[in-house]
Write a structure and sequence with these properties.
By secondary structure, the protein is mostly helical. It has helices at 4-7, 10-36, 40-62, 68-112, 118-142, 150-161, 166-186, 208-211, 214-235, and strands at 188-190, 205-207. The protein has 9 helices and 2 strands, in the order αααααααββαα.
Amino acid sequence: MKSLSDSCTPGSCDYWMVSAAAAKLGSQASTLGVRHIRNGTLRLQFNREVAYYAKSIVNDVSQGKKTPEQGLKALKDEQDSLLSQAREIAFRGAGVISGALQFAAGAGICYASVGTLCLLAGAPMMLNGANSTYENGRNLFENRSDTVGPVRSGYRAISGVLGKGDCEADVAYGVVDLTSSAYGIGKMVLKPDSWRLFRYVNTDYVRGYQQATRGGFIFDRLMDSATAESMYDACYPSNE
């Protein structure tokens, strides 16, 4: 039996490729819908809209309104758009978690230092962590990306008083985030099997990154990358 590629003409092969790309787009939309849309009615509507769009592209190609290359490009662009939106939603959710962990790390500094390092390190980390949770949480639930929390607004207000702009304010805000991350991976923590009757010695401690799980370490680095990207975007906004 001949394969499809052996038996079809160039025109029908092109049509088959567009149809396959449309089916791939529908499958991608179905996966993303299950992952991100909890409401069954909205998920069904989303899948139907994507399916209608994909079918319209296939029809345009079959009727000669679009070339196969134009059809494939339109389907690829739509798929890239869906993946980009899914990535944005995932980062917002991760930002909520990261903010909560940052707040906890700041509280830990205040507790461990009996308040001596709270003003210089612990409190700024707690404020940034709470603000990050607020911004990402609101962006997630309201499907937006421009929420500015009260702490970031404070940074920007101080920057304005000093004759600077949002770029400098957001960079300062990001530096606190990155500093808290560096503190987390660099601080000394007890080994899991450490035990002493009186006191612990240096050999009982390791750096935080040595105790971190692979998944936790990767998550932390992804959040660092997102922070650095937001700092860059604040100073060099996209013209798109």
